[in-house]
Amino acid sequence: MAVQMLTAQRSVPSRRVMLVAAGALALAALVPLSQIGAPDYSGLAANQVVEMHTSRLPVASLDELTKHSDAVVLGRVVASGAVHFIQAEGQKPAALQPDARLAGLAKAKDAAGIAAAPRSDTGILTPPKGIPVTDFTVQISQVLNGSLVQGSTITVSQPGGQITLPSPKGSTAPTLVRTLVAEHDPQMVVGQEQVLFLQRSSDGTFHVTGGPDGRFSLDARRTLKPTDENTTLGASLKGQTLARLVQNVNSIKAGGTAQ
Q1: Residue 190 is assigned to a structural domain of this protein
Q2: What is the dihedral of CA 165, 167, 169, 171, to 10 degrees?
Q3: What is the mean pLDDT of the chain?
Q4: What is the spatial distance between Cα 99 and Cα 119, in angstroms, rounded to a whole number?
Q5: More confident site: 43 or 203
Q6: Is residue 18 included in any domain, yes or no?
Q7: Bridge-partner residues for 134, per DSSP?
Q8: What is the distance between the alpha carbons of residues 26 and 170, in angstroms, rounded to a whole number?
């Protein structure tokens, strides 16, 4: 299920960080409402994965990915924190401007004694406000580039996560649980070993440069497996050894080019 979202940015990520909007929360909450009131709530109560459509600029090359990253590490995800919500910046809703042409219609309606139908919020779910973000604790097993310390732990924030939606007023339906996942960027999993291109946020946490473009797992041969293999960058780095990646990253940082 694809969900269109607005864009927002946490702290000081670059323009290439994947940005997700709070509209997905509303749609994730409202989509199953057609089932509320049915005798069997088992399908409604089960956790469902909701894919959030995202807008981001793809990273064109390893050169670009490296230059926009503060650090490159090999690390293992050791813990997943609770989902929290960040607010969109510079996206305040505009005040409603009534159409002057409707003023006469409203007066005529009042004169005829036509009362507006009462509005009710029965059966309406109110989703959390903001963009869901999950903080993962990553232990660094190897520093490929940058000033981070091997063996230390850092916090890496990723859009998405599991949210709980309370039942509507007057409803006997169960509490809804939904897992929001950004498009092409599956949530990190505790125990995973990942190669991460990282940008540091102003609060000291990190986010992955370019979303899925800056995240790789390792296959059985210890070669790179891109999170999104369908991009130009992912295809170019698929199967590359860790040693060659380190050589290319260091060359780019020194002003050279990748080989």
Answers
A1: yes
A2: 160
A3: 78
A4: 22
A5: 203
A6: yes
A7: 83, 158
A8: 19
Asked if residue 98 belongs to a domain, the reply is: no
Q: What percent of the chain has pLDDT over 70?
A: 64
Residues whose CB falls within 8 Å of the CB of residue 94, separated by 6 or more in sequence, listed in order: none
Q: How far apart are CA 70 and CA 10, in angstroms?
A: 16
Tens of pLDDT, residues 109-131: 555 555 555 555 555 566 677 78
Task: Please tell me the number of Cα atoms within 13 Å of 206 on its side-chain side.
Answer: 25
Q: Are 196 and 139 in contact (CB under 8 A)?
A: no
115's tokens: 């009362």
Query: What does the angle CA 224 – CA 230 – CA 234 come to, to the nearest 5 degrees?
Result: 30
CA–CA gap between residue 194 and residue 226 (Å, rounded):
10
pLDDT score, position 149: 96
Which residue segment(s) compose the domain that 23 sits in?
A: 2-89+121-253
* pLDDT of residue 196 exceeding 60: yes
Q: Looking at the domain assignment, is residue 112 inside a domain?
A: no
Q: How confident is the model at residue 86 (pLDDT cuts 50, 70, 90)?
A: confident
**C-alpha gyration radius of the chain:** 23
pLDDT at 178: 85
Closest CA to 18 of 191, 185, 256: 185
How would you class 175 by CB atoms within 10 Å of its CB: exposed for 0-12, middle for 13-18, buried for 19 or more? exposed
Q: Looking at the chain, how many residues does it have?
A: 259
Cα–Cα distance for residue pair 216/228, rounded to 1 Å: 9
The total number of structural domains that make up the chain: 1
